[in-house]
Amino acid sequence: MIQNIKKTWHYFKRNGITAALAKVSEQLSQQSAERNYSSWLADHLPEAAQLEAQRRHIFINPITFSIIVPTYCTNPTFLQQMVESVLNQTYPYLELCIADGSPDDSVATILSEYQDPRIHYRHLQENNGISGNTNAAFEMATGTYVALLDHDDLLTPDALYEMAIAVESNPATDMMYSDEDKVSADLRAYFNPHYKPDYNPELLRTNNYICHFLAVKRELAIRAGYFRPDYDGAQDYDFIFRCVELAQHIHHIPRILYHWRSHAESTAANPQSKRYAYEAGKRALESHLIRNNIEAIVSHTPHLGFYRVQYRIKITHDSDHCCLHISENAANPPLILKEVKQELISNCMRPDVGIVGGKTLYPNGRIKQAGLRRTSDGTYEPEYNGLKKHFSGYMHRANLQRCVDSVSCDCFAVKLELLDQLGVSPQDLQTQKDVNLLCERIRSAGYLVVFTPYACIKIKDSRMRHRGIKRNRSKHA
């Protein structure tokens, strides 16, 4: 409770009373929705019979996972629970590589209680920080994949089994990550489940949504260069960027495989405890953009650890054309509409983007859509429909730029040369169904379909009006 009050106070000082009240209201709503999560989790974790079947599973080409753990003056109980969560995996081919920067033998004493040859321990002569200690653990690794685990967190017993099955299905997998949740220090309460999308490069440029549980091919990690001390606090974010820049096959396992322990000193419980981490995250993102020759400005959003990237695209008079459409039913003043157009164009003209759409609001300010999602039956539904205008949605994603399945037909920009390539005329894009089908073709052609919340229009009424789409040169739009 005290931590929540502190977090709200810091948020109020940064963003004002209206935003703070909206944040509290949304948090209470989310907490209510998650009230039964611990019970749900207990019902959905593998049962004893399933775990035993996993232990009996015969892998044709078993691989070894190297679990990398840096330690420093670790709470003895937390350390024991972490170690046992690794040793109790149903998949046996693993090694636990622990590099310890503690000034005493407290970690070594506890580890000596485990007579398991899979534990590899090294006591460092000095504490080299989170990156230096992690790199020392990396040096001990011999497995095909290295997986990152914090010294006070826990794996579910089937974590490595699920990853091994993924590799068995696709041996070319370079990186894997799972969903995660948080657990109280005493392990009595599980909360804040983080259900993640499949690899989403736009979302990754807003925050480290991949986070835990992450496994990377060791050879790829070596090429990426392990951890860099200059980014301590966001060293995982920096490492992930350098890995995805090299990876060809990134796989998401849609299961909770990692419990992130929440206590007073962890960022899981108190984001204010490591404010420096968010500056390091900003620098990690900027470094990623520079490596990819992308001109952009990175700024913090009201939510700590989340960022906005404003792309700077050079536009010439005889190239970089786009088709831009803003609904005639938009109620925004001209200055706002000009900013909306600039945001759409700056994203649309990026080489890897095919189409970009903005956020639309109902007359009462509630969200009409923040991107569209393709359902299992092939239909499309608007995301965050009806959400209050001051709310940010699940994991703030209503307010984050990200890849989506489709965009609104009320507010979008699409590459003109891509329309020509696909044989589509701007006049063919009159309905939401038309735009949905176009987005499918754009994704199939290898381009990104992007939603940006920074191009936001309010619709005068709930009726759909479309009277043609303008074919514009981007420099005049």
Question: What descriptors fit this protein?
Answer:
477 residues, Glycosyltransf_2, glycosyltransferase activity, Spore Coat Polysaccharide Biosynthesis Protein SpsA, Chain A, single chain, glycosyltransferase, EC 2.4.-.-, Glyco_trans_2-like, disordered C terminus, alpha+beta, 15 helices, nine-stranded mixed beta sheet, seven-stranded mixed beta sheet
Low-confidence stretches: 463-477
Structural class: alpha+beta
Main sheet: strands, sense, barrel = 9 strands, mixed
What would the CATH topology of the largest domain be? Spore Coat Polysaccharide Biosynthesis Protein SpsA, Chain A
| Helical segment count | 15
Instruction: Give me the Rg, rounded.
Output: 24 Å
For the record, give the distance between the C-alpha atoms at the N and C termini, rounded to a whole number.
Answer: 50 Å
Mean pLDDT: 89
SS elements, strand count: 20
CATH level 4 superfamily of the largest domain: Spore Coat Polysaccharide Biosynthesis Protein SpsA, Chain A
Question: For the record, what CATH class of the largest domain applies?
Answer: Alpha Beta
Q: How many domains, in number, for the residues?
A: 3
Give the name of the CATH architecture of the largest domain: Alpha-Beta Complex
Shape: elongated
The helical percent reads 25-40%
Strand content: 15-25%
